Amino acid sequence: MHKIILYTCSMANQQLIKGSLSTIVLHLLQSAGEMYGYEITQKVKQLTSDEIKLTEGALYPTLHKLEAEGTLTTESRKVDGRVRKYYRLTEDGKKATAERMEELEAFLLNMQRVLGLNIKLSS
Amino acid sequence: MHKIILYTCSMANQQLIKGSLSTIVLHLLQSAGEMYGYEITQKVKQLTSDEIKLTEGALYPTLHKLEAEGTLTTESRKVDGRVRKYYRLTEDGKKATAERMEELEAFLLNMQRVLGLNIKLSS
DNA sequence: ATCTTATGCATAAGAAAATTATGTATAAAA
DNA sequence: TTTTATACATAATTTTCTTATGCATAAGAT
């Protein structure tokens, strides 16, 4: 009768991701070649030990926007009776991803300066 | 007649700051003891070589919210004919700041994992 | 057999947080 | 005396995320 849902997350951590979601998506696609939406959510979940959870309500609109911009292309395939929509970087998308990553590194460097943290980036 | 405005900024870098603005503000206040709004904008500008610009439209509502939450207290003083509103952490605010910093470090660690960056934090 | 969970997509309503554009006011510099 | 710098504030809009919901199939549990 009662459905008990446990929210075990790292909370406010979540809001820090604002603004970097698309960069994360682009980077994952660059690494993997192609991925489908659900796969992306699971990958992030796995990489962060459940600490960062991409919600579908945030992910799918982001993917659609990137596709509309010409950054991504899609291809739907039926696997095990279910349709998966695979995303892949376009040539423009590869350039965009490189730019985004540089921006992110610059941002992390600025965070270092502002917060007095000692962050060392390598690769 | 013509006013030429040069936008030299690092653009998208800007949107990465979303979500971490209040953490930045809290950290700066913790370091300095007290600061007024304009001073915060100039400090961030200086620390990041003009790369991150806190707009007043973002900063002031954030300060007001933190004050309403009991995280900050204010004191207005007239200096050189102009009123400055100094902000300072409350006791609760000091705890909140420590928590926020931990969250930020956890976030940076997660970014490392997701993006495959090698970030080393020290202090 | 049937109910739940996992997989997989999508969108709509609402909230949160930023940008952009104003507005007021004083002091200093051009 | 006009512009720039200092110093506060808010309103309208946009962006972006959360929450809620919907549909559908497969697999596992009861």
TrEMBL record, chains A, B:
<dbReference type="GO" id="GO:0003677">
    <property type="term" value="F:DNA binding"/>
</dbReference>
<protein>
    <submittedName>
        <fullName>DNA-binding transcriptional regulator, PadR family</fullName>
    </submittedName>
</protein>
<dbReference type="InterPro" id="IPR052509">
    <property type="entry name" value="Metal_resp_DNA-bind_regulator"/>
</dbReference>
<keyword id="KW-0238">DNA-binding</keyword>
<dbReference type="Pfam" id="PF03551">
    <property type="entry name" value="PadR"/>
</dbReference>
<feature type="domain" description="Transcription regulator PadR N-terminal">
    <location>
        <begin position="25"/>
        <end position="98"/>
    </location>
</feature>
<dbReference type="InterPro" id="IPR005149">
    <property type="entry name" value="Tscrpt_reg_PadR_N"/>
</dbReference>
<dbReference type="InterPro" id="IPR036390">
    <property type="entry name" value="WH_DNA-bd_sf"/>
</dbReference>
<dbReference type="InterPro" id="IPR036388">
    <property type="entry name" value="WH-like_DNA-bd_sf"/>
</dbReference>
